[in-house]
Amino acid sequence: LRLRIIATNDLHGALEPHPDANGVLRGGAAYAATVIEKARSECAPACETILLDAGDEFQGTPVSNLAYGRPVVEYFNRMGYTASALGNHEFDWGVDTLRARMREAKYSILSANLKFTDGREVPWIRGDTIVVRGKTRVGIIGISTPETKTATLPANVKAYRFDDPATVIDARAKDLRARGADVIVVITHEGGFCNQKDGAESCNGEIFDVAAKLTEKIDVIVSGHTHSLLNTRVNGIPIVQARSSGQAVEVVDIPLDDNGKPNGAAVADVRSVTTASITPFGAVDSIVTRASQRVASIVSRRVATTRVSLTREGSQYPLGNLVADAQRWAAQGDIAIMNNHGIRANLRAGEITYGTLFEIQPFANTLYRVRMTGAQVRQYLEKLIGMDEPQVHVSGVVVGYNPDLARGERITSLRLAAGRTLDENASYNVITNNFIATGGSNMGPPAGSRLTPLDITDLDALIGYLKTLRSPITAPSENRIFIAQ
Fold this sequence. Notes:
Blueprint: E1 2-8, E2 18-19, E3 25-26, H1 29-43, E4 47-53, H2 62-65, H3 70-79, E5 83-85, H4 95-104, E6 108-110, E7 114-116, E8 128-133, E9 136-144, H5 148-151, E10 160-162, H6 165-178, E11 183-189, E12 193-197, E13 200-204, H7 206-213, E14 220-223, E15 229-234, E16 237-242, E17 248-255, E18 267-272, H8 282-299, E19 302-306, H9 318-331, E20 335-339, E21 350-353, H10 354-360, E22 366-373, H11 374-385, E23 392-395, E24 397-401, E25 411-416, E26 427-433, H12 434-437, E27 450-457, H13 458-468, E28 481-483
Helix pairs in contact: 1-8, 3-8, 9-13
């Protein structure tokens, strides 16, 4: 006897398959559904199954975004998901839209560590649930990453706080067992990374820090947020994560005794979703087809072409330069700063369509003009370079820095466009998006800067700029932020 946990994470609205860096089509809801159904069918009659998700369901593609995530809810409902964790991007369209999707969902969206800033419970969301599978009572705890405060528009979560996950999990697990739960599963929108070196596995990240602190018995942790492949154990707890965008499905088997109680070590597997070897699941394929047809005339609009693919590799890459240039052009600024995490997809060689660019910049962030003195510009760049690794692209400025120097004193060279030097007493227009301008990812501009919102979205800026360039376009390849000893 066994209990089978089938799980996904970070779909990000990717209802359709997408090619990887090698051009291999992966993911897609209908293909992931086939893998899920196969995992279910393998299980009968010797075990029971439960289907879960670790959050960030809706945000990222035109087929989902232009319907504010409704097709994803329809997909999850059809597949019979039991629960999902509340991801940071679930807040991207505001709490009203989130709650509308929650009302449509036949599954629970959970966050046990979400509270009002004064510590009160949030009445519109549950923290846990118990479901019965055969003789086994399964307690499920949902957790949101504390990074949510700065990993979505700060204004959307200003009324809330996100408590320490380890403390919350221990308390909820103890309570669930007192309520009769035999198995405890944590679905958490927290992640990390594992690497193999010289035959040894090395893992780091938020979820591993949390797992190491737990004192109550947890049977499985389903992880998300970092879009990584995880299949490991920490503190005796199996931890799994299945990349993102439906590219994989997690399957975890928990052995049970005749009374439905855990009886031995769980066995985990992460199964890839490659379209070439999978027949799409018909009931879900029809959901995807209908949703795709609704937006087909929009996403197919041609914008430009490129002979080479532009990928997001390292912290500085041509696609990032192109996006920053577009924003400086659109807002007529002296300097532009674009956060790397806001660039969500690679640009494939060939025709560039509206849909392609939408997936690169899906958040509909608006541009801001930030008026700074030259001294504030230097201060701001020092702040951004003082992070573990620069996570921005710039336009209109080239910055050399020495990471071995003290934070706040790392810049060794700074040149503006056309070789001009920075005048610390002059005023400059720095263009960025509303996410950064309002403090997202702790990248807010210096105090005293003058902020002016502009009626320009980042996507419109990119489309408009590409139309001014000769096709096939060529993206600027120079490193504008570089290490200089």
